[in-house]
Write a structure and sequence with these properties.
CATH architecture of chain A: Orthogonal Bundle
Distance between the termini of chain A: 48 Å
Number of strands of chain A: 0
Helix content of chain B: over 70%
CATH class of chain B: Mainly Alpha
Helix content of chain A: over 70%
Order of helices and strands of chain A: HHHHHHHHHHHHH
CATH superfamily of chain A: MetI-like
Oligomer: heterodimer
Structural class of chain B: mainly alpha
Largest interface: A-B, 95 and 95 residues
CATH topology of chain A: MetI-like fold
Number of domains of chain A: 1
Structural class of chain A: mainly alpha
Order of helices and strands of chain B: HHHHHHHHHHHHHH
Number of helices of chain B: 14
Radius of gyration of chain A: 24 Å
CATH architecture of chain B: Orthogonal Bundle
CATH superfamily of chain B: MetI-like
Number of strands of chain B: 0
Distance between the termini of chain B: 43 Å
Largest sheet of chain B: none
CATH topology of chain B: MetI-like fold
Radius of gyration of chain B: 24 Å
Number of helices of chain A: 13
Strand content of chain A: under 5%
Number of domains of chain B: 1
């Protein structure tokens, strides 16, 4: 065979095994979801029929969808600033010499490696009304307990606390890596100038951590559309849809209500949000490179 | 003592307090699992220790089977990811072929939209392939991983061309060069990717929940969700024991190889 053609054939052959599975489980489902979102559900022997934008019209008028979107935003904007601040704090603390550093670092990081289902099992008991740990603590201090997960005012908050506890240690390690990447001469210069720890942190460390923060914030945002396992154990979207997040709503629509057409619409919405987020991240990073 | 030294000591105390706070939920699960149910919220140092909760959990649900399923599914996924992603990364990093750049950008779409969100169509595909409720079905959507291709490609690109050239001059074919030059020089990345992938899939829940419906395929996360659900009415001491049992392999692995874990996650996260 002509060596010039062989080169192309060889490249494609190496890529082919992965290509099959990329197409089958990523690209085909993306296209197929878009396609299905314009059709109704097949009924018995009746095949599916093109319905134009009817499913999207239903989406716009679906109060549960809007509630789920709102919950997703509250969940994201409620957890991410706290998680990121804690992650930075943890990284700065663990990055210097101190007694028992190994224990502290392990304590911060351990929740990260546990499955969300296991974590939810443990926290479920904390939140259980009457006999749970929180209610017992409150009672011992003379307050009355409450139904943390059964009350629409507190249920989402309960899930958010768990997310913060699980993720802060995970994002800590990216900050730790970034801190260790700060050139030694910058740190030395700060010391010679006599910069205080807080001043140095605010004026030197924090700006240098900016690319990490961009990375972490976008990853955390994406995670809110990915990690919903705790909802299965703790609330199942309730009470009164107070903990309905988009991906959980997609799951329910597809596998509890078996409404494939509407599930396709929800898939398209989630994909659109994720792609917008990725483009935004790309733009932010691109703009930042001018300063470096 | 200078003020800044005092400040540093205050920071150490704060770091410790936060560490204790962070460790408490897990420590509490240990407390509940190793004591009779009556002591679940009664913190008495004289409380009798017991393994009864573990025995009870182990006999109530088929944990052994769940473990086998999880190990099969996780090993299968990681092994196939290694093979497919290595070949693809090699094609992207070291070969020049038509359509390479376009294909690469198409792959990166998976970094935004993952199989986790595409579960509806993937479920239909598995039905069509007659694979619903099998262990390969849990694995297959994840084995072509954009993340893996990306990570390995970056690493292969850093291997000096001269090494590959030297092997070529000695008569080595492209696959031999991959196996004798590129793969051995990327051991650290394979370790990092392997650890991240194993812990990720060990913990994966939503897709396995959807695609499995029997004891013979269910991984530990799905089994645990059934075991721990409140409808089941199992008391908290036993749920704690079951929960600890199912995270034990990962937790022990992490505590033993903490350094590798942290470094792997660091390495895998920085693109």
């Amino acid at each position: 065979m002509n060596p010039k053609i062989a080169r192309h054939v060889y490249g494609w052959l190496l890529f082919a095994p992965a290509a099959i599975f990329f197409i089958l489980f990523t690209h085909y489902p993306i296209v197929r979801s878009c396609y299905l979102s314009f059709f109704n559900n097949p009924r018995g022997v009746q095949p599916r029929r093109f319905v134009g934008l009817a499913n999207y019209a239903y989406l716009v008028n679906d109060p549960i969808f809007w509630q789920a979107l709102k919950n997703n935003l509250i969940y994201a904007f409620g957890t991410i600033p706290v998680t990121v601040s804690l992650a930075i704090l943890m990284a700065v603390w663990v990055n210097r010499r101190m007694t028992g550093r190994a224990f502290v670092r392990a304590a911060y990081f351990t929740p990260t490696i546990l499955p969300m289902i296991a974590i939810a099992n443990i926290w479920l008991f904390f939140y259980t009304p009457g006999v749970g740990l929180f209610d017992n603590l409150l009672k011992s201090m003379g307050y009355s307990g409450r139904n943390w997960l059964g009350d629409p005012d507190t249920a989402l908050l309960c899930l958010m606390v768990i997310a913060i506890w699980k993720d802060a240690g995970f994002f800590m390690i990216f900050y730790l890596a970034a801190l260790q990447g700060i050139p030694k001469d910058v740190i030395e210069a700060g010391k010679i100038e006599g910069a205080g720890r807080w001043y140095f942190f605010r004026r030197v460390t924090l700006p240098l951590l900016m690319p990490t923060t961009v990375f972490v914030v976008f990853n955390a945002l994406i995670n809110t559309f990915r990690i919903i396992d705790h909802i299965f154990i703790l609330t199942k979207g309730g009470p009164d849809n107070a903990t309905e997040l988009l991906l959980y709503y997609l799951f329910q629509t597809a596998f509890e209500f078996w409404d494939t057409a509407y599930a396709a619409v929800l898939t398209v919405v989630i994909m659109a949000i994720l792609m917008t987020l990725a483009l935004a991240q790309f733009k932010v990073l691109e703009r930042r490179t001018h300063y470096q | 003592m200078t003020p800044s030294r005092l400040w540093l000591q205050l920071e150490t105390v704060a770091a410790w307090l936060l560490g204790i706070l962070w460790a408490l939920p897990l420590l509490y699960a240990f407390w509940a699992a190793f004591h009779p149910a009556a002591y679940a919220v009664k913190f008495d140092l004289a409380a009798p220790l017991t393994l009864a909760n573990f025995i009870e959990a182990w006999t109530t649900a088929p944990f052994a089977r769940y473990f086998v399923n999880t190990i099969l599914y996780t090993t299968m996924t990681t092994a196939l990811q290694f093979v497919l992603c290595t070949l693809a990364a090699y094609a992207f990093a070291c070969h020049d072929w038509k359509g390479k750049d376009l294909v690469f950008s198409l792959i990166l779409i998976q970094l935004m939209v993952m199989p986790d969100q595409l579960l509806v169509v993937n479920y239909q595909t598995m039905t069509a392939l007659n694979l619903v409720d099998t262990i390969p079905a849990i694995s297959l959507p994840y084995i072509a991983s954009a993340f893996g291709v990306f990570l390995l490609r970056q690493n292969f690109k850093q291997v000096p061309i001269a090494l590959a050239e030297a092997a070529r001059v000695e008569g080595a074919g492209p696959l031999t060069i991959l196996l004798k030059v590129y793969v051995p020089l990327s051991k650290a990345v394979y370790l990092a990717y392997g650890l991240v992938s194993i812990s990720w899939h060990w913990n994966n829940f939503l897709w396995p929940l959807v695609i499995t419906n029997s004891v013979t395929t269910r991984p530990i996360t799905v089994g645990l969700s059934i075991f721990g659900s409140p409808e089941n009415g199992v008391n908290f001491a036993i749920v704690s024991a079951g929960t600890l049992m199912s995270v034990a392999p990962l937790l022990i692995g992490f505590l033993l190889f903490q350094h590798q874990f942290v470094h792997s996650f660091m390495r895998a996260g920085i693109k």
